[in-house]
Write a structure and sequence with these properties.
Layout (H helix, E strand, L loop, with lengths): L1 H16 L20 H19 L3 H31 L2 H45 L40 E5 L4 E5 L4 E5 L2 E6 L2 E5 L7 E3 L6 H4 L3 H17 L8 E3 L2 E3 L3
Helix pairs in contact: 1-4, 2-4, 3-4
Amino acid sequence: MKTKLIILTLLPFMALGGCATMPAGPSVQVMPGYGKTFEQFQADDAVCRQWAGQQTGQSPQETFNQDTGTGAAVGTAAGAVLGAVVGAASGHAGAGAAIGAGSGLLVGGATGASVGQGQGMQAQRRYDITYQQCMVAKGNQIPGMAPVSAPPVVEAPPPPPVAVAPGPPQVVFEAPPRFIYTPHLGFYVAVETPYDMVFMDGRYYLWSNGFWYEAPYYDGPWAVVYADRIPPWLGRFRHAEIRRYRDSEYRVFLHDRMHYHGRWHEAGERHGHR
Protein backbone atom coordinates (compact mmCIF):
# COMPACT_ATOMS: atom_id res chain seq x y z
CA MET A 1 0.00 0.00 0.00
CA LYS A 2 2.82 2.42 0.83
CA THR A 3 4.47 1.74 -2.52
CA LYS A 4 1.25 2.52 -4.33
CA LEU A 5 0.85 5.75 -2.37
CA ILE A 6 4.41 6.85 -3.21
CA ILE A 7 3.82 6.14 -6.90
CA LEU A 8 0.54 8.02 -6.82
CA THR A 9 2.24 10.93 -5.08
CA LEU A 10 5.11 11.13 -7.63
CA LEU A 11 2.92 10.80 -10.71
CA PRO A 12 1.81 14.47 -10.68
CA PHE A 13 5.42 15.70 -10.49
CA MET A 14 6.41 13.36 -13.31
CA ALA A 15 3.56 14.72 -15.38
CA LEU A 16 4.46 18.30 -14.58
CA GLY A 17 8.11 17.66 -15.33
CA GLY A 18 7.21 16.89 -18.93
CA CYS A 19 5.59 20.30 -19.49
CA ALA A 20 7.41 22.66 -21.86
CA THR A 21 9.19 25.63 -20.24
CA MET A 22 7.88 29.01 -21.35
CA PRO A 23 10.55 31.28 -22.94
CA ALA A 24 12.01 33.90 -20.63
CA GLY A 25 12.61 36.46 -23.41
CA PRO A 26 11.09 37.65 -26.69
CA SER A 27 9.78 35.03 -29.10
CA VAL A 28 9.88 37.32 -32.14
CA GLN A 29 12.68 38.19 -34.54
CA VAL A 30 14.11 41.67 -34.78
CA MET A 31 16.91 42.72 -37.14
CA PRO A 32 19.44 45.50 -36.65
CA GLY A 33 18.39 48.84 -38.10
CA TYR A 34 20.07 50.65 -40.94
CA GLY A 35 23.66 51.50 -40.12
CA LYS A 36 23.60 49.91 -36.64
CA THR A 37 26.53 47.84 -35.43
CA PHE A 38 26.00 44.54 -33.65
CA GLU A 39 27.12 46.11 -30.39
CA GLN A 40 24.50 48.85 -30.75
CA PHE A 41 21.87 46.20 -31.54
CA GLN A 42 22.83 44.25 -28.39
CA ALA A 43 22.51 47.39 -26.28
CA ASP A 44 19.04 48.07 -27.74
CA ASP A 45 18.01 44.46 -27.11
CA ALA A 46 19.02 44.63 -23.43
CA VAL A 47 17.14 47.89 -22.86
CA CYS A 48 14.00 46.67 -24.65
CA ARG A 49 13.96 43.34 -22.78
CA GLN A 50 14.00 45.23 -19.51
CA TRP A 51 11.34 47.65 -20.71
CA ALA A 52 9.05 44.83 -21.91
CA GLY A 53 9.41 43.02 -18.59
CA GLN A 54 8.50 46.17 -16.66
CA GLN A 55 5.42 46.80 -18.79
CA THR A 56 4.22 43.19 -18.62
CA GLY A 57 4.56 43.04 -14.82
CA GLN A 58 6.08 39.54 -14.66
CA SER A 59 7.75 37.15 -17.04
CA PRO A 60 5.71 34.53 -18.96
CA GLN A 61 7.50 31.77 -16.99
CA GLU A 62 6.45 33.36 -13.69
CA THR A 63 2.82 33.52 -14.88
CA PHE A 64 2.97 29.86 -15.93
CA ASN A 65 4.49 28.73 -12.60
CA GLN A 66 2.06 30.76 -10.53
CA ASP A 67 -1.10 29.41 -12.22
CA THR A 68 0.25 25.85 -12.25
CA GLY A 69 1.04 25.95 -8.51
CA THR A 70 -2.35 27.43 -7.67
CA GLY A 71 -4.15 24.69 -9.62
CA ALA A 72 -2.12 21.96 -7.96
CA ALA A 73 -2.78 23.28 -4.46
CA VAL A 74 -6.50 23.63 -5.03
CA GLY A 75 -6.68 20.16 -6.65
CA THR A 76 -4.79 18.56 -3.75
CA ALA A 77 -7.10 20.03 -1.11
CA ALA A 78 -10.25 19.15 -3.01
CA GLY A 79 -9.01 15.60 -3.68
CA ALA A 80 -8.14 15.02 -0.05
CA VAL A 81 -11.60 15.98 1.14
CA LEU A 82 -13.31 13.92 -1.51
CA GLY A 83 -11.03 10.91 -0.83
CA ALA A 84 -11.69 11.08 2.90
CA VAL A 85 -15.43 11.00 2.32
CA VAL A 86 -15.18 8.04 -0.03
CA GLY A 87 -12.70 6.23 2.27
CA ALA A 88 -14.94 6.76 5.31
CA ALA A 89 -17.77 5.08 3.52
CA SER A 90 -15.57 2.04 2.95
CA GLY A 91 -14.00 2.14 6.42
CA HIS A 92 -10.58 3.53 5.26
CA ALA A 93 -10.84 7.30 5.67
CA GLY A 94 -7.06 7.86 6.00
CA ALA A 95 -6.13 5.90 2.91
CA GLY A 96 -8.95 7.52 0.97
CA ALA A 97 -7.70 10.98 1.91
CA ALA A 98 -4.14 10.15 0.79
CA ILE A 99 -5.31 8.70 -2.50
CA GLY A 100 -7.68 11.64 -3.02
CA ALA A 101 -4.91 14.14 -2.31
CA GLY A 102 -2.62 12.48 -4.83
CA SER A 103 -5.32 12.34 -7.46
CA GLY A 104 -6.31 15.95 -6.75
CA LEU A 105 -2.70 17.05 -7.11
CA LEU A 106 -2.46 15.27 -10.43
CA VAL A 107 -5.73 16.65 -11.80
CA GLY A 108 -5.27 20.09 -10.25
CA GLY A 109 -1.68 20.29 -11.44
CA ALA A 110 -2.68 19.37 -14.97
CA THR A 111 -5.53 21.88 -14.92
CA GLY A 112 -3.27 24.56 -13.44
CA ALA A 113 -0.64 23.81 -16.03
CA SER A 114 -3.20 24.27 -18.80
CA VAL A 115 -4.41 27.56 -17.32
CA GLY A 116 -0.86 28.65 -16.67
CA GLN A 117 0.15 27.92 -20.23
CA GLY A 118 -2.76 30.01 -21.56
CA GLN A 119 -1.96 32.89 -19.23
CA GLY A 120 1.72 32.54 -20.06
CA MET A 121 0.97 32.79 -23.79
CA GLN A 122 -0.99 35.99 -23.21
CA ALA A 123 1.83 37.41 -21.14
CA GLN A 124 4.28 36.33 -23.86
CA ARG A 125 2.19 38.12 -26.49
CA ARG A 126 2.11 41.35 -24.44
CA TYR A 127 5.83 41.04 -23.82
CA ASP A 128 6.60 40.52 -27.54
CA ILE A 129 4.48 43.49 -28.64
CA THR A 130 6.11 45.80 -26.11
CA TYR A 131 9.56 44.51 -27.03
CA GLN A 132 8.97 45.04 -30.77
CA GLN A 133 7.65 48.56 -30.22
CA CYS A 134 10.75 49.44 -28.22
CA MET A 135 13.15 47.99 -30.79
CA VAL A 136 11.43 49.72 -33.71
CA ALA A 137 11.48 53.01 -31.79
CA LYS A 138 15.25 52.61 -31.48
CA GLY A 139 15.61 52.26 -35.26
CA ASN A 140 15.66 48.47 -35.62
CA GLN A 141 13.42 46.55 -37.98
CA ILE A 142 11.06 43.57 -37.86
CA PRO A 143 11.16 40.96 -40.65
CA GLY A 144 8.12 41.27 -42.88
CA MET A 145 7.69 44.96 -42.18
CA ALA A 146 8.95 47.77 -44.37
CA PRO A 147 12.65 48.21 -43.53
CA VAL A 148 13.74 51.33 -41.77
CA SER A 149 15.71 53.16 -44.39
CA ALA A 150 18.32 55.81 -43.92
CA PRO A 151 16.92 59.30 -43.36
CA PRO A 152 16.68 61.27 -46.55
CA VAL A 153 19.67 63.41 -47.28
CA VAL A 154 18.63 67.02 -47.29
CA GLU A 155 20.93 68.92 -49.53
CA ALA A 156 21.75 72.43 -48.51
CA PRO A 157 20.40 75.02 -50.91
CA PRO A 158 23.01 76.42 -53.23
CA PRO A 159 24.53 79.68 -52.02
CA PRO A 160 23.09 82.77 -53.64
CA PRO A 161 25.12 83.99 -56.56
CA VAL A 162 27.71 86.55 -55.64
CA ALA A 163 26.95 89.84 -57.26
CA VAL A 164 29.77 90.97 -59.50
CA ALA A 165 30.48 94.65 -59.47
CA PRO A 166 30.86 96.44 -62.76
CA GLY A 167 34.10 98.06 -63.69
CA PRO A 168 35.55 100.99 -61.70
CA PRO A 169 33.31 104.09 -61.84
CA GLN A 170 34.45 107.11 -63.79
CA VAL A 171 34.70 110.05 -61.39
CA VAL A 172 35.62 113.51 -62.65
CA PHE A 173 36.05 116.55 -60.41
CA GLU A 174 36.70 120.12 -61.58
CA ALA A 175 37.88 120.93 -58.07
CA PRO A 176 38.62 118.85 -54.97
CA PRO A 177 35.35 117.93 -53.25
CA ARG A 178 34.40 119.32 -49.84
CA PHE A 179 33.50 117.01 -46.97
CA ILE A 180 31.66 117.89 -43.76
CA TYR A 181 31.77 115.84 -40.60
CA THR A 182 28.39 114.42 -39.60
CA PRO A 183 28.21 113.62 -35.86
CA HIS A 184 25.40 111.12 -36.29
CA LEU A 185 27.54 109.12 -38.70
CA GLY A 186 31.00 109.64 -37.22
CA PHE A 187 32.73 110.34 -40.56
CA TYR A 188 32.96 112.92 -43.35
CA VAL A 189 30.47 113.06 -46.23
CA ALA A 190 31.02 114.88 -49.56
CA VAL A 191 28.73 117.83 -50.35
CA GLU A 192 28.25 120.07 -53.38
CA THR A 193 29.03 117.15 -55.68
CA PRO A 194 26.87 114.63 -57.62
CA TYR A 195 28.84 111.73 -56.13
CA ASP A 196 28.00 109.88 -52.93
CA MET A 197 31.39 109.85 -51.29
CA VAL A 198 32.66 109.60 -47.72
CA PHE A 199 36.06 110.08 -46.13
CA MET A 200 37.46 108.33 -43.07
CA ASP A 201 40.89 107.30 -41.78
CA GLY A 202 42.67 108.67 -44.82
CA ARG A 203 40.58 106.63 -47.30
CA TYR A 204 37.81 107.64 -49.71
CA TYR A 205 34.70 105.54 -50.28
CA LEU A 206 32.33 105.97 -53.22
CA TRP A 207 28.82 104.50 -53.58
CA SER A 208 28.09 103.58 -57.20
CA ASN A 209 25.85 101.03 -58.96
CA GLY A 210 24.93 99.35 -55.67
CA PHE A 211 28.55 98.84 -54.49
CA TRP A 212 31.05 100.63 -52.32
CA TYR A 213 34.40 101.45 -53.89
CA GLU A 214 37.58 102.46 -52.10
CA ALA A 215 40.53 104.61 -53.19
CA PRO A 216 43.50 106.36 -51.59
CA TYR A 217 42.56 109.60 -53.41
CA TYR A 218 39.24 111.28 -54.11
CA ASP A 219 39.66 110.69 -57.86
CA GLY A 220 40.75 107.03 -57.63
CA PRO A 221 41.91 104.54 -58.58
CA TRP A 222 38.78 102.79 -57.31
CA ALA A 223 38.51 99.17 -56.18
CA VAL A 224 35.26 97.47 -55.25
CA VAL A 225 34.65 96.62 -51.59
CA TYR A 226 32.38 93.59 -51.20
CA ALA A 227 29.95 93.21 -48.30
CA ASP A 228 32.31 91.15 -46.11
CA ARG A 229 35.07 93.78 -46.42
CA ILE A 230 33.08 96.95 -45.76
CA PRO A 231 34.44 98.75 -42.64
CA PRO A 232 32.12 98.32 -39.63
CA TRP A 233 31.70 102.05 -39.15
CA LEU A 234 30.40 102.32 -42.72
CA GLY A 235 28.45 99.06 -42.95
CA ARG A 236 26.17 99.86 -39.99
CA PHE A 237 24.37 102.55 -42.04
CA ARG A 238 22.19 102.13 -45.07
CA HIS A 239 22.94 104.30 -48.06
CA ALA A 240 19.69 106.26 -47.59
CA GLU A 241 20.60 107.01 -43.94
CA ILE A 242 23.97 108.41 -44.95
CA ARG A 243 22.29 110.75 -47.41
CA ARG A 244 19.72 111.90 -44.83
CA TYR A 245 22.30 112.72 -42.17
CA ARG A 246 24.49 114.39 -44.79
CA ASP A 247 21.68 116.66 -45.94
CA SER A 248 20.73 117.55 -42.36
CA GLU A 249 24.29 118.60 -41.51
CA TYR A 250 24.72 120.42 -44.81
CA ARG A 251 21.70 122.64 -44.04
CA VAL A 252 23.41 123.65 -40.81
CA PHE A 253 26.56 124.36 -42.80
CA LEU A 254 24.71 126.58 -45.30
CA HIS A 255 22.94 128.50 -42.54
CA ASP A 256 26.13 129.19 -40.58
CA ARG A 257 28.61 129.19 -43.44
CA MET A 258 30.63 132.12 -42.07
CA HIS A 259 30.44 130.89 -38.49
CA TYR A 260 30.19 127.14 -38.98
CA HIS A 261 31.63 125.37 -35.96
CA GLY A 262 31.53 121.89 -37.42
CA ARG A 263 34.47 120.07 -38.93
CA TRP A 264 35.09 119.87 -42.63
CA HIS A 265 37.68 118.54 -44.99
CA GLU A 266 38.95 119.25 -48.50
CA ALA A 267 41.15 116.85 -50.39
CA GLY A 268 44.76 118.01 -50.18
CA GLU A 269 43.97 120.53 -47.42
CA ARG A 270 42.28 120.08 -44.05
CA HIS A 271 40.60 122.74 -41.93
CA GLY A 272 39.20 122.53 -38.45
CA HIS A 273 39.96 119.55 -36.21
CA ARG A 274 39.58 115.84 -36.74
